[in-house]
Design a protein that fits this description.
Length: about 325
């Protein structure tokens, strides 16, 4: 059976669904090619001295792994010459990256976490790339950091790659969620799942339980009920998973349902969570909502949060709609 490739899918989204413009199609193809190059480097691991620390820190004050730096460079080099971008922003870079004057500029803004789940690199657990695409409202080429501070509802595309047993690219351009598997022999992304949907109910939750004593009461109440299983108010048993790679946890939820939580906690009372809004929470929330799930920060839709800083953090509760709504209702009741 002839499979649909990413290129063919994007041409059809441009031609029949009128969902994307040619420049956005080019952008997504370029990001797809960059993720293939990242997958090659991730796959080499120790064979090419790719593991371990780069000996530097990123803007978050986190030690950068060699693959963090390499992945960031791959995405930057792949995207700066094509003429489709007005600028880029990355978890690994303090400020935005404007397109050099020697290249043409486009109307899109690309934001990314080049390699999410870095603590899993050296132990060979799935990691990934997360990206978000916004349309710049500014004159071509005049972008500033402020140009990027748009709510998640402004996204025109979002996606992630998972570097795991298979290499996957999951994408939305606002017409549902599609999954492509890398055919390593042909080097092409092949459509393997269309219109992915997250069940509204689930029996599986994902949270880092070691932080339990630091959680706010609504999260504590919710998780306590899950742990009581069929003996408690939920009257059913729950299973737990925590990969500590957001892409892997979110992909599991897209595939079979579940709820993912990284709530704010007492360790950093003045910081609203660990995950970053612009290039982790927003793209994942766009994808989850496109798949019929929900995503809040405990109080409001993540996609409606107005950003104030490029690297700002946010509490994340996303996945199966009925569970996310329950946790959110516990937060509202606690006000
Ligand atoms: P913890 C990876 O570092 C990450 O940003 C997400 O991918 C993941 O969900 C989370 O942090 C894991 O955090 O505190 O459990 O190591």
């Amino acid at each position: 059976m002839r499979r649909t490739t990413l290129t063919q899918f994007l041409v059809e989204q441009q031609r029949s669904a009128r969902a994307i413009k040619p420049e956005l199609r080019l952008l997504i193809e370029v990001v797809g090619r960059a993720c293939k190059a990242i997958a090659v480097n991730v796959g080499k691991g120790a064979l090419a001295n790719m593991l371990g620390s780069a000996g530097t820190e990123n803007v978050q004050g986190e030690v950068q792994k060699k693959l963090d730096v390499i992945s960031n460079e791959i995405l930057m080099e792949a995207n700066e010459w094509g003429g489709h971008l007005a600028g880029m922003a990355s978890e690994e870079m303090e400020t935005i990256h404007e397109i050099p004057n020697r290249y043409p500029k486009g109307e899109y803004l690309l934001l990314f976490d080049p390699l999410d789940g870095s603590s899993n690199i050296d132990v060979n657990v799935s990691i990934g790339t997360i990206f978000s695409v916004l349309k710049s409202g500014d004159e071509l080429g005049q972008v500033t950091e402020k140009s990027f501070l748009l709510p998640g509802t402004s996204q025109v595309a979002a996606g992630y790659a998972v570097y795991g047993p298979t290499t996957l690219l999951v994408l939305t351009v606002g017409t549902g969620v599609y999954c492509f598997t890398l055919d390593r022999e042909m080097g092409s992304w092949v459509l393997t799942q269309s219109n992915m949907k997250i069940p509204h109910d689930t029996q599986e939750f994902a949270i880092n339980m070691s932080n339990m004593r630091h959680w706010e009461s609504p999260v504590r109440k919710y998780v306590d009920e899950l742990l009581l299983g069929e003996t408690g108010p939920r009257e059913k048993n729950f299973n737990m998973r925590w990969v500590a790679s957001m892409v892997a946890d979110v992909h599991r939820i897209l595939t079979r349902g579940g709820i993912f939580m990284y709530p704010r906690d007492a360790r950093t009372p003045d910081v609203p969570g660990k995950l970053r809004l612009m290039y982790e929470a927003n793209p994942m929330s766009f994808i989850v909502e496109q798949a019929g799930g929900a995503a809040t920060n405990g109080h409001e839709r993540i996609l409606e949060v107005r950003p104030h800083k490029l690297h700002e953090r946010i509490s994340v509760i996303l996945g199966s709609k009925n569970e996310v709504e329950r946790v959110t209702s516990y937060h509202r009741a606690a006000l």
